[in-house]
Write a structure and sequence with these properties.
Oligomer: heterodimer
Shape of chain B: globular
Largest sheet of chain B: 6 strands, mixed
Number of helices of chain A: 13
Radius of gyration of chain A: 21 Å
Structural class of chain A: alpha/beta
Number of strands of chain A: 12
CATH superfamily of chain B: P-loop containing nucleotide triphosphate hydrolases
Strand content of chain A: 15-25%
Radius of gyration of chain B: 19 Å
Shape of chain A: globular
Strand content of chain B: 15-25%
Distance between the termini of chain A: 39 Å
CATH superfamily of the largest domain in chain A: P-loop containing nucleotide triphosphate hydrolases
Low-confidence stretches of chain A: 339-344
Order of helices and strands of chain A: EEEHEEHEHHHHEHEHEEHHHHEEH
Largest sheet of chain A: 8 strands, mixed
CATH topology of chain B: Rossmann fold
CATH class of the largest domain in chain A: Alpha Beta
Number of domains of chain B: 1
């Protein structure tokens, strides 16, 4: 079997402040092969962004990661600064939600991309790096690339800036791209274009993609596999099909039922459909009690009883529709009752 | 037929832009000759991409933005002809909920102060019992009266913002992307709350959003804006079943559905 591009084993991330250490992510595991997309879905406090940053070793001050991360054959958690510098951009690249903060207002677009090229390979001449930048801008669909390299970030629209950032991230053909809410700040039509572009480039380069998102619509249109996070822990993991057709965690079904649908049907009385909201607000691992973090908001917790509030459920194997697919859910219920009911 | 709560006729708004030396100031036409009406008890959804002029249009409904030309009649009164006092009276009747509750609530005021100030500003007395009833109508308990904005979550704050809008029993609520800053699971709570207010209290809504699925769920009628103009308008079901204008079609097609790809 081929080695995965990304393998994460028992990743925990903690913050230390004022001498107190608290975990924000605990015991995450995942694997991702080349050419595949794994979507990490969650809300505030779920730890999805921190997980992405931990893989890049781009954690904020005071945060530390334990466990094991192997990205493109490199042990990321034990790598020294020199190795990390080599890995970032060349093996693993990242695209953020806010393209403006990823670009320097003082440099033209070409300089950003050329810099990425020359950091990766210092033997490339300035002129050649600049030429690569033009090529790359053309590849990501920016019109008149020879002219666009001389433009500054503020002269671009949000969608064009995100394309430029993608060009910068992919110019060295990384094996893994981490995209943290890459389309959240964009209009829907532009979002669709950017997602299509990412898919196209992924196929062309055989790249693995970790797509961090809060939006099940985006996930459905882009992911092969899905990892649902709640309060810093894995709630459910499975193929897109398993997650949609036979979800095994009440949070997964709840999240989907809370997502407004374009085809929302009118019920018989001509009244509008109500969304099935999840009561309460998302929490973080820090504020979670001793049991399942979702229990206070879970409509099924009282069916199980006290176990939900005293014991953290571990991910266990669930039925799958895919050949050899892995489907895990961290819930004390073996089966969700009346699944279609809940999911609609 | 009763008078509409809001009627805009051929309304335009041109923003002045900075002109350079020797350059003519042309300005930016944010809203270009729009006519629009909202009946009593009706929820109108206004959709469009960023920069299409939907927020500017919404803000003209209660006089926050003054139109360059055209007339806005809210509750039968021509907004342009209102005195300061008249505008103040208008704003009791037309309340507003913004996207970011943390930015629209004063961080140095407790929820009690925020709500009491609404009554105070309109020269009305209020009691704790009234404030508690107001909070309860948006699903919050009395505890919240003593809290500051930083002590509540985004969803709770947006409930406070809705409570503030409801305080003076308005006929029309203008909600500009009221759920865009909220988590998915919380967004549904707020959308349901707004839908209940429309149904149970007969409040009219002008709901501005870039999210078609939110508008679909929530509006009786939909208006689609593009470059300052309304390019399509009609009953919500029809617009989404068979969008006519290319802009509407593009929006519908681009909206990702939380469904397995076929």
């Amino acid at each position: 079997m081929r080695d995965p591009v990304l393998q994460v084993e028992d990743l925990s991330v903690s913050f230390t402040s004022g001498g107190v250490t608290t975990d924000v992510v605990r015991d995450l595991s995942m694997r991702l092969d080349g050419g595949r997309t794994l979507a990490v879905v969650g809300e505030s406090g779920s730890g999805k962004t921190i997980t992405g940053r931990a893989i890049m070793r781009l954690l904020p001050r005071g945060a530390s990661a334990r466990g094991r991360i192997v990205a493109a054959g490199r042990e990321m958690l034990s790598a020294d600064e020199r190795e990390l510098r080599r890995a970032r951009g060349s093996d693993v690249a990242m695209v953020f939600q806010d393209s403006m903060s990823a670009l320097s207002p003082y440099l033209d677009i070409g300089a950003h991309i050329a810099q990425a090229v020359r950091l990766h390979d210092p033997s490339v001449t300035r002129r050649a790096a600049r030429a690569r930048a033009v090529e790359m801008l053309d590849r990501v669909g920016i019109p008149e690339p020879a002219d666009a390299v001389r433009r500054f970030p503020h002269e671009f629209s949000g969608g064009m800036r995100q394309r430029a950032v993608i060009a910068m991230a992919l110019v060295n053909r990384p094996a893994l791209l981490i995209a943290d809410e890459p389309t959240t700040a964009l209009d829907v039509t532009v979002q669709a274009q950017i997602l299509a572009l990412l898919r196209e480039l992924q196929q062309e380069y055989g790249m693995a993609m970790l797509l961090i998102s809060h939006d099940f619509g985006v996930v459905a249109s882009a992911a092969d596999d899905v990892l649902v996070l709640y309060a810093g822990r894995q709630a459910e993991y499975g193929s897109l099909r398993d997650i949609f057709e036979q979800p095994a965690h009440p949070y997964t079904t709840g999240l989907r039922a809370a997502t407004p649908r374009l085809d929302a049907r009118l019920d018989s009385g001509g009244k509008r459909t109500r969304l099935r909201a999840i009561p309460g607000a998302p929490t973080s691992l820090r504020d979670a009690g001793p049991g399942c973090a979702f229990a206070p908001r879970c409509g099924l917790a009282d069916q199980v009883g006290e176990r939900c509030v005293v014991e953290v459920p571990l991910p266990t194997v669930r039925p799958t529709n895919e050949d050899g697919g892995l489907h895990l859910a961290a819930c004390h219920l073996d089966r969700l009752p009346a699944l279609q009911e809940v999911a609609r | 037929m009763s008078e509409p709560i809001l009627e805009m006729t051929n309304v335009s708004k041109r923003y002045r832009t900075a002109g350079g030396f020797g350059r003519r100031r042309k300005g930016f036409l944010a809203v270009d000759g729009v006519s629009l009406r909202i009946g009593r008890g009706e929820a109108l959804g206004l959709v469009g991409e960023s920069g299409s002029g939907k927020s500017t249009l919404a803000r003209m409904a209660n006089g926050l933005v003054v139109p360059t030309s055209g007339t806005v009649r809210t509750d039968g009164q021509d907004v342009a002809c209102l005195s300061r006092r008249g505008l103040r009276r208008l704003r009791r009747n037309v309340a507003m909920v913004f996207q970011d509750p943390l930015a629209s609530l004063n961080p140095r005021q407790t929820v009690r102060q925020t709500l009491a100030n609404v009554f105070h500003a309109h020269g009305e007395a209020t009691s704790t019992a009234e404030l508690v009833a107001l909070l309860e109508s948006v699903g919050l308990d009395a505890d919240y009266l003593g809290r500051y904005p930083h002590e509540a979550s985004g969803g709770q704050l947006q409930r406070v913002a809705v409570a503030r809008a409801l305080a003076l029993k308005p006929d029309l609520i203008i909600a500009d992307e009221p759920t865009s800053a909220l988590d998915v699971s919380v967004r549904a709570q707020i959308l349901n709350l707004l839908a209940d207010l429309q149904r149970d209290q007969g409040i009219s809504f002008l709901h501005v959003s870039h999210d078609l699925a939110v508008i679909r769920l929530y509006s009786d009628r939909v208006a689609v804006m593009q470059r300052g103009r309304i390019v399509e308008t009609g009953p919500s079901d029809e617009i989404f079943r068979s969008p006519q204008h290319s802009c509407t079609r593009a929006l519908v097609e681009a909206t990702p559905e939380a469904e397995l790809p076929a």
